[in-house]
Amino acid sequence: MEPLEQLPPIAPHECEAAGDVARRIAANVRRAVQLDPVTLDHVLVALLAEGHVLMDDRPGVGKTALARALARSIDCQFARIQCTADLLPADVSGTNVYNQREGRFEFRPGPVFANVVIVDEINRASPRTQSGLLECMQERSVTVDVQTHELARPFLVLATQNPTEFEGTYPLPEAQVDRFMVRISLGYPQHAEEVAMLGDHGAGDRVLALEPVVTAADVLSAQDAAMRVRAEQPLRDYLVRLLARTREDPRVELGASPRAGLMLLRAAKAHALLRGRDHVLPDDVQELALPVLTHRIVLVPEAIGTGPAQIVRDALAAVTAL
Question: Fewer CB within 10 Å, N- or C-terminus of the chain?
Fold first, then answer.
């Protein structure tokens, strides 16, 4: 098998420019949304690594505001999909509509053609609609009546689930959860942050006051730079040993997949870029192992009192970087 053509190395000015793009986005989003800096870092990692985000959180903690603030910060189109049991795949991806005047069918794109899409309570949609949405996420295109339509770029899906309400829901299968790069939880704000938020409430919707700080072209350039961050062979070996440790744990029924390794490597490259580096360190892998791997691990029924996060922590403790 012939080796694939190597991507050109990232130049210092590209590394600096990409880091500046991320810093400007983060500062702008924090003007409108009270958010833990680490959690915001994970969202930016997903954006730069062309991944998607699954948010497990209670209603009213700012998930939609985060998505709107992010879209306004990068000057891109925002769309919201409220999932219900009767939501159809065509309601998400779009459909062909007959134009009587011209005597032909025309494609009417759905909300998934926006750049930043928040999918509220994805587990309330039927499995058929869930699979259609996740196909868009994976392929970044929509096929309707044998015609393929490319989605916008950049493209980021932030899907939400309510962890306390399960009546009338269709839980995402493990194979579909595996499509999300990171899984996060915003949580409730700190006391001082919530007091400040209440004080700002009288000024109206803070997201509407945001101005774009970068362009879509800036984000695409940063994504291209993140792809070209170096990950040397010892780093890749460390990552694979970490994945293998989760599969060998007797408490685990389903360990981290090879796709999980690809996702973690891409996320680690983006994280290194956020830190101003053109190469990945084990620190990048370790900082992202929990949000990238935890939701991909299924435990055996006998593993009472142990969670997937503990499996990942134990693997990080047991596997040493060379």
Answer: N
Whole-number Cα distances in Å, 130 to 40, 81, 86, 104 = 26, 12, 12, 30
Domain ranges of the chain: 1-228, 230-322
What superfamily in CATH does domain 230-322 come from?
A: Magnesium chelatase subunit I, C-Terminal domain (1.10.8.80)
Q: Which residue has the higher pLDDT, 162 or 80?
A: 80
pLDDT tens digit sequence for 184-240: 998 888 888 778 777 776 667 788 889 999 999 999 999 999 999 999 999 999 999
Is pTM, for the whole model, over 0.70?
Answer: yes
pLDDT of residue 70: 97
Residues forming a β-bridge with 118: 80, 158
Q: Which fold has domain 1-228?
A: Rossmann fold (3.40.50)
Residue 322: predicted pLDDT: 74
The candidate with the shortest Cα–Cα distance to 52, out of 43, 63, 40, 65, is 43
